[in-house]
Amino acid sequence: MVQVNENYLKLKAGYLFPEIAKRVKLYSQSDKSSNLIKLGIGDVTEPLPKACRDAMAKALNDMGTSQGFRGYGPEQGYSWLREKISEHDFFSRGCEILPEEIFVSDGSKCDSSNILDILGKDNSIAVTDPVYPVYVDSNVMTGRTGDVLEDGTYQGLKYLAINEDNNFLPELPKSKVDILYLCFPNNPTGATITKEELKKWVDYAIKNKSLILFDAAYEAFIQDKDIPHSIYEIEGAKECAIEFRSFSKNAGFTGTRCAYTVVPKNLLGFSSKNEKIELWSLWNRRQSTKFNGVSYIVQRGAEAVYSLEGKKEVRGLIDFYMENAAIMKNKLQTAGYKVYGGDNAPYIWIKVPDQMTSWDFFDFLLQKVSVVGTPGSGFGLSGEGYFRLSAFNSRSNVIDAMERIITI
Ligand code: MLT
Predict the structure, then answer these.
(1) pLDDT in tens, 394-406
(2) Which of the listed residues 17, 186, 386 should we mutate to test ligand 1's pocket, taking the one with most ligand atoms within 8 A of CB?
(3) Going by CATH, does the domain composed of 6-47+309-406 fall within 3.90.1150.10?
(4) 172/208 Cα distance (integer angstroms)
(5) How high does pLDDT run on average in the chain?
(6) Residue boundaries of the structural domains of the chain
(7) What CA–CA distance (Å, rounded) separates 138 from 182?
(8) How many whole angstroms from 357 Cα to the centroid of ligand 1?
(9) Under 8 Å CB-to-CB from 225, ≥6 apart: which residues?
(10) CATH placement of domain 53-307
(11) Whole-angstrom distance, CA of residue 235 vs CA of residue 373
């Protein structure tokens, strides 16, 4: 008799975004005339940069020739891509991240879950609340959280509330925590962290021999020059942090799939006998065994992000989405909504009006004006009473959606 992984039975509900899609599908079937505008999942809408498409087309042609054909690539990614990442994303900002510390992958969602493979089951874990649900669910699935409590939280996780009172910046845990998930610019609140604030986390992690899992998937949206793009801009971070980066949101690779994870060489974990173990070696071993790398064609596309033309086009995409965010924020604020985020991130985090719950507001917007957003409570208990709107859509849809929302 086959036994299931019973940890899956502890998951609170379906994954947030498929759950939303299910409700939206039901609604669309009942009201076929509705002209639905989706500002829910943070999925890009604008075409892939030409520089990336050209590079991928060329790579595809290469694959049709005897000399250009490639079979399995390096599991860690091709060196020419890792070198570009190292130079343009890190050395250009004064961070000494070497190409071999960069592991190219097919997504940050996968990496931020897979990283648990190399970390012990007894680590104490802290997440912000609200939080990108993948961090919590991947810990639940691997049996690291204990049981779910009545309020939907997990007994074995430490939740660090982020809300208006603390400017959406978590406070350092009072006690020692082994693994800390941080995401800045933040999904879902759109909040950012300064170097001074981030330094406190790095210092805490070094002092407590903790590991920070830093999700910087939205770094390209930072407008303010003083906000760090990488945790490695903070001294000491190479001793205590793994960083996740993605080509999904900056270069529109959500469907194309390419990301990378940085595991510094001098980052250490400990065995139960207190021996020092290099996390780099474990991750390298894990990827070599369980992953066959991202396709040659896609990596060539990602490489083109760093070309002059690619950089210009990516800048254009970011500016476009950030202008969407500015329009959204402005319209909603003028209409009297309390609005956060949207200045250095493609997400707008709004306070739900009239004492409604987040899901009530979701249903209200869907039924009344056919606009889809994401209920804040889907990101955690402290997300209740908030609602996330994504700036990823066409300009006309964004304007249309705002007009609809402010006129109800
Ligand atoms: C989101 O909407 O939060 C993101 O699209 C999720 C993701 O990137 O996986």
Answers:
(1) 999 999 999 999 9
(2) 17
(3) yes
(4) 12
(5) 96
(6) 6-47+309-406, 53-307
(7) 15
(8) 22
(9) none
(10) 3.40.640.10
(11) 38
Token pair in block for residue 173? 């845990």
Measured over the CA atoms of residue 219, residue 220, residue 222 and residue 228, the dihedral's sign is positive
Question: Which residue has 């065995």 as its token pair?
Answer: 271
Distance CA 217, CA 196 (A): 20
> How many residues are present in the chain?
408
Which residue of 16, 39, 41, 393 sits with most ligand 1 atoms within 8 Å of its CB, as the best mutation to test the pocket? 41
**Reported confidence tier of residue 355, pLDDT bands at 50, 70, 90:** confident
CB proximity list for 402: less than 8 A, separation 6 or greater = 327, 328, 331, 332
**How far from 151 is each of 144, 154, 340, 381, 385, CA to CA, in Å?**
18, 9, 25, 8, 15
What residues pair up with 83 in beta bridges, in sequence order? none
The tokens describing 239, both together, are 């001793």
Q: Tens digit of pLDDT for each residue in 5-57?
A: 999 999 976 668 888 888 899 898 887 667 999 999 999 999 999 999 999 99
Return the residue whose CA atom lies nearest to atom 8 of ligand 1: 42
Q: Is the pTM of this model over 0.85?
A: yes
* Domain 6-47+309-406 identical in fold to domain 53-307: no
Q: Point out the ligand 1 atom lying closest to the alpha carbon of residue 41.
A: 2
Quick one: three-class SS letters along the chain? CCCCCHHHHHCCCCCHHHHHHHHHHHHHHHCCCCCCEECCCCCCCCCCCHHHHHHHHHHHHHHCCCCCCCCCCCCCCCHHHHHHHHHHHHHHHCCCCCHHHEEEECCHHHHHHHHHHHCCCCCCEEEEECCCHHHHHHHHHCCCCCCECCCCCECCEEEEECCHHHCCCCCCCCCCCCEEEEECCCCCCCCCCCHHHHHHHHHHHHHHCCEEEEECCCHHHCCCCCCCCCHHHCCCHHHCEEEEEECCCCCCCCCCCCEEEECCCCCEEECCCCCEEEHHHHHHHHHHHHCCCCCHHHHHHHHHHHCHHHHHHHHHHHHHHHHHHHHHHHHHHHCCCCEEECCCCCEEEEECCCCCCHHHHHHHHHHHHCEECEEHHHHCHHHCCEEEEECCCCHHHHHHHHHHHHCC
CA distance 265 to 278: 7
